Amino acid sequence: MSNDSTAPGLLTPLSASQAYDEKLERELSQWTRALSGLPSGMVRPRWTATQAAQPSADTNWCGFGIIGFTADNAPAFVRQTDDDSQLWRHEVIETLASFYGPQSQSVATLFRDGLTVEQNNETLKTNELSLADYSELTAFPELINNQWVRRYDITVRLRRKVIRDYGIKSLVEAPVSFFGD
Q: pTM for the complete prediction?
């Protein structure tokens, strides 16, 4: 079955260069860990098939996850060649980081301030991401095992350009006849 515009039917991308799912979540978790200064293993995914045991109330850690994708509603088709076209669109990836523990406020402010250091965002650029904006820190204490645990939340929005190649062929010639004057 053809995956280009020479035959009728649906087209699927020939390539997609951006990371999604677990790969993207891992990259962003490592970035969060680096900016917050938390030790290895202390930035944990929010939602996994098997939940790991939650750290004790006297441990500083972070629950991290992607909570949304917003795409512009006007993708552009560019770089059209005889064989394919690229779809370009921009998307915003919204993440939520919840910092827990006795120094959660300090760790959360380290992360927040680290967001604003340009050198810290170079890692994002290698993954085709850039910082869009971030929310204020919100205190959100949580009752865990009948014990109140300190928690501070921050939402971070990242931008990137999504590029997908489609097999949309250029129209080189058309079987059209012109007649008349």
A: 0.86
Report the 10 Å Cβ neighbour count for 171: 8
Mean pLDDT of 34-52: 91
118 vs 84: CA distance, rounded Å: 36
What are 112's two structure tokens? 């927040």
Burial class for 46, CB neighbours closer than 10 Å (0-12, 13-18, 19+): middle
- Thinking of the domain 15-166, which architecture would CATH place it in? 2-Layer Sandwich (3.30)
Domain boundaries, the chain: 15-166
- Interval 56-109: pLDDT, tens: 989 999 999 999 999 998 899 887 877 788 889 999 999 999 999 999 999 999
Query: At 110, which amino acid appears?
Result: L
Mean pLDDT value of segment 123-143: 92
| Other residues' Cβ atoms within 10 Å of the Cβ of residue 10 | 6
Residue with tokens 């007649």: 179
Give one DSSP letter per residue of 47-81, joined into a string: --SSPPPPPPTTS-EEEEEEEEEEE-S--EEES--
Phi and psi at residue 90, to the nearest 5°:
-110, 140
What is the DSSP secondary structure assignment for residue 4, as one 8-state letter?
A: B
pLDDT at 153: 98
